[in-house]
């Protein structure tokens, strides 16, 4: 209940990319309750359990409220509290010294899809425009980079074409590589309603029969990594059965004949052989897709986190272009973003190869346009793309990058092959970590720790998966010395001598500069969006002028963002995962999220209600596989790949395919990323977090069952996090 004197502040949930609108009930500088915004088009008042418990994560004991300097060696650090302005000046002095000694490319930024659009814009400008290096990347590289590349190749620009409102008019959902029920729960509830109450068909492609498949008309338990083969096989059948839209293909696309030739060999028999599915399952999926009038395809990390991720995303797009199911209500390829503002980060171009407004650093005209806006001399922006996430940390480990500033993300938990990440952070001359919480695993490597405000403690904007921009209104003051991320970066930049170029007085001013860079850009034009307008409610881009209502769907006119306005058909070449199970490493390991937790649990781990279902990391395994290894439910096991491993407990799951293991990504003790494969998609540079080959054995019997002589006999478990993070006063 609201009490007299309470105020209601509108914002957006800071977890997943559904982008649910929320209302914060504020009393005496405290958020006392969070409720769904009944008018927000992402959720119409609904929230999942994480969103509904958001009021608990702002005042937790692990909030970072002071700046710290490290004493001692990285990884075994003692952090001492210092005055914030001294920490900011020290960060500036040490960055400046490294740039002077080694040049701008010795410095890197690793940032996050949880930052506001304004913060990402400012950091990107500091890095690419003022310092003069493109070595900035974000955890979006682990999330949506393959979808970004596929959209750009096929449509001429990034940007999912669909709206959440398409769910209520779709008659078929093709969900591939997404456990929507747990990772995008509010969106899933809308899908479920459309299926159960309005008879829409639901096809779910996933090696596990997840909660998303509960009401599925067809579940395809595909072999990990085989999605591109399935998508090619489906297109083969759509062509065979004359379920393609030849008029749409002729009017709006190029490359059809070449593409059709590439899927000729994906007969049902061959597709079944590669995917592990039956011919009947493949035929049924093609019939459901082809017979429907309005198919919405939804995908997420199960498609993107792959060395073959761009091809998979292209395979989905090809199905929609070939059937003309795009640009119409209820139709289209729709990537579901993992983070609340990875979309906004992409808009401002925070990946190593991008510039604001869906521009590219390799494009001379794009660089010139941005240089002009930023008041920089021609040539100020380097034409060389910076290092993407995995390569960036490898360069840190190799010593070519000397300094890294990590903001609002936890690479010691989330990147593949954590051994390399750890070596990089240990070797770096300077590690600055800016975070809101003191128990991030990355913090123990920080030389300088800067305390950041949370989303409710600042103004800014987020863009959700469907291009809907929502204003985050500041509800409360941040605790202690914590400041909005953009203000911390602005202060360091000012000490470095860049203050006159970043002299913003508010997040609204930053947004105003950014939106000018999008004027006339197709499709990303937010020049008609401002903080003042967003106070009235969210706006979906493109929005090219201040009277424009926003745009629910891209490419409705069939004009794509390519030079000739036509979409491109591109082959979805099937390449198997970088590692296949063998005698030494007989299981596939796949990883993912669970409903109650978020990333590395710095927030959700503090909420008792969210910790009831699982208190520690686990390995899901089919009961028959467990029986062969004499494993019992709840037993601790060691799991390792060729790179390393971790310890977790067994959880029997009859709904996972035999030979496949699943681990959640959330727990630091029992983190599968000590084992995952850093191989990347050659185009998107997104790593293959979803498939690697592992061995597992009971923790108690590891010394006697290790079957491969070239492996260490003793498991290399990750270091305990008990002693991590700055000492809290
Ligand atoms: Fe937040 Fe996502 Fe849950 Fe919505 S569905 S409340 S955005 S975590």
What does the model show?
There is one protein chain. This protein has 729 residues and is α/β, with parallel strands linked by helices. The strands form 7 sheets. Strands 5-4-18-17-16-6-7 form a 7-stranded mixed sheet, sandwiched between helices. It has a 6-stranded mixed sheet with strand order 24-26-25-28-23-27. The model is unreliable at 702-729 (pLDDT under 50). The chain binds iron/sulfur cluster. Iron/sulfur cluster (SF4) binds at residues 13, 15-16, 18-20, 43, 47-48, 50-51, 184-186.
Instruction: Please report the number of helical segments.
Output: 23
* Biggest pleated-sheet summary: 7 strands, mixed
> What does the average pLDDT come to?
94
Query: Per DSSP, what share of the residues sits in E-state strands of 2 or more residues?
Result: 15-25%
**Class computed from helices, strands and strand pairing:** alpha/beta
Helical percentage: 25-40%
Bound molecules: iron/sulfur cluster
**Computed Rg:** 24 Å
- Low-pLDDT regions: 702-729
Number of distinct beta strands:
28
Strand order of the largest sheet: 5-4-18-17-16-6-7
How far is the first residue's CA from the last residue's CA?
Answer: 35 Å
Which descriptor suits the 3D outline?
globular
């Amino acid at each position: 209940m609201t009490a007299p004197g309470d105020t209601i502040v509108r914002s957006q949930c800071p977890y997943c990319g559904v982008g649910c609108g929320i209302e914060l009930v504020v009393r005496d500088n405290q958020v006392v309750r969070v409720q769904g915004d009944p008018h927000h088009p992402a959720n119409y008042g609904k929230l999942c359990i994480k969103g509904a418990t958001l009021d608990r994560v702002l005042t937790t004991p692990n909030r970072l409220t002071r700046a710290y300097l490290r004493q001692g060696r990285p990884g075994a650090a003692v952090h001492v509290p210092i005055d914030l302005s001294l920490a900011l000046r020290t960060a500036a002095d040490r960055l400046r010294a490294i740039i002077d000694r080694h040049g701008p490319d010795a410095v890197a930024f690793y940032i996050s899809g949880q930052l506001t659009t304004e913060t990402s814009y400012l950091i990107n400008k500091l890095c690419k425009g003022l310092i003069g290096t493109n070595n900035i990347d974000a955890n979006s590289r682990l999330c949506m980079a393959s979808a970004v590349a596929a959209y750009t190749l096929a449509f001429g620009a990034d940007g999912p074409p669909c709206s959440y409102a398409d769910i209520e008019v779709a008659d078929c959902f093709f969900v591939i590589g997404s456990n929507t029920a747990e990772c995008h729960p509010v969106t899933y509830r809308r899908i479920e309603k459309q299926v159960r109450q309005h008879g829409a068909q639901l096809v779910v492609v996933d090696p596990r029969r997840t909660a998303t498949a509960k009401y599925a008309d067809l579940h395809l338990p595909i072999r990990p990594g085989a999605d591109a083969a399935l998508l090619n096989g489906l297109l083969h059948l759509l062509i065979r059965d004359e379920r393609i839209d030849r008029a749409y293909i002729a009017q709006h696309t190029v490359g059809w004949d070449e593409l059709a030739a590439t899927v000729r060999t994906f007969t049902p028999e061959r597709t079944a052989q590669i995917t592990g599915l039956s011919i009947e399952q493949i035929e049924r999926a093609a019939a459901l897709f082809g017979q429907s009038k309005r198919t919405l395809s939804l995908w997420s990390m199960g498609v993107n986190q792959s060395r073959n991720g761009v091809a998979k995303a292209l395979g989905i797009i090809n199905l929609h272009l070939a059937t003309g199911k795009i640009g119409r209500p209820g139709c289209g390829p729709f990537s579901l973003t993992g983070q609340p503002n990875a979309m906004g980060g992409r808009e401002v171009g925070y990946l190593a190869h991008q510039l604001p407004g869906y521009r590219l650093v390799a494009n001379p005209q794009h660089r010139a346009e941005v240089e002009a806006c930023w008041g920089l001399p021609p040539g100020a922006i380097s034409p060389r793309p910076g290092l993407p996430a995995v390569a960036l940390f490898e360069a840190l480990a190799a010593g070519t990058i000397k300094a890294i500033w990590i903001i609002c993300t936890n690479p010691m938990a989330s990147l593949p092959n954590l051994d390399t990440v750890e070596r990089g952070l240990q070797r770096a001359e300077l590690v600055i970590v800016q975070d809101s919480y003191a128990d991030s695993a990355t913090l123990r490597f920080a030389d300088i720790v800067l305390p950041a405000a949370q989303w409710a403690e600042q103004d800014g904007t987020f863009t959700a998966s469907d291009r809907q921009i929502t204003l985050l209104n500041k509800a409360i003051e941040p605790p202690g010395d914590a400041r909005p991320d953009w203000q911390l970066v602005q202060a360091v930049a000012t000490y470095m001598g860049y203050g006159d170029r970043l002299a913003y007085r508010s997040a609204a001013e930053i947004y105003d500069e950014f939106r000018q860079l999008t004027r006339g850009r197709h499709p990303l034009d937010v020049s008609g969006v401002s903080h003042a307008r967003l106070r009235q409610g969210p706006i979906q881009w493109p929005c090219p002028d201040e009277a424009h209502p926003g745009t629910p769907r891209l490419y409705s006119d069939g004009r794509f963002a390519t030079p000739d306005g036509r979409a491109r058909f591109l082959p979805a070449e099937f390449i198997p995962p970088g590692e296949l199970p063998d005698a030494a490493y007989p299981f596939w390991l796949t990883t993912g999220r669970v409903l109650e937790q978020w990333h590395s649990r710095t927030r959700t781990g503090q909420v008792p209600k969210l910790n009831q279902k699982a208190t520690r990391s686990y390995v899901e395994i089919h009961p028959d596989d467990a029986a062969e290894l004499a494993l019992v439910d709840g037993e601790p096991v060691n799991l390792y790949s060729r790179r390393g491993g971790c310890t977790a407990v067994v959880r029997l799951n009859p709904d996972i395919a035999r030979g496949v293991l699943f681990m959640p990504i959330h727990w630091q003790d029992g983190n599968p990323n000590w084992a995952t494969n850093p191989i990347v998609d050659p185009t998107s540079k997104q790593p293959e977090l979803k498939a690697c080959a592992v061995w597992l054995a009971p923790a108690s019997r590891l010394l006697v069952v290790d079957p491969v002589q070239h492996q260490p006999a003793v498991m290399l478990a990750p270091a305990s996090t008990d002693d991590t993070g700055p000492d809290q006063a």
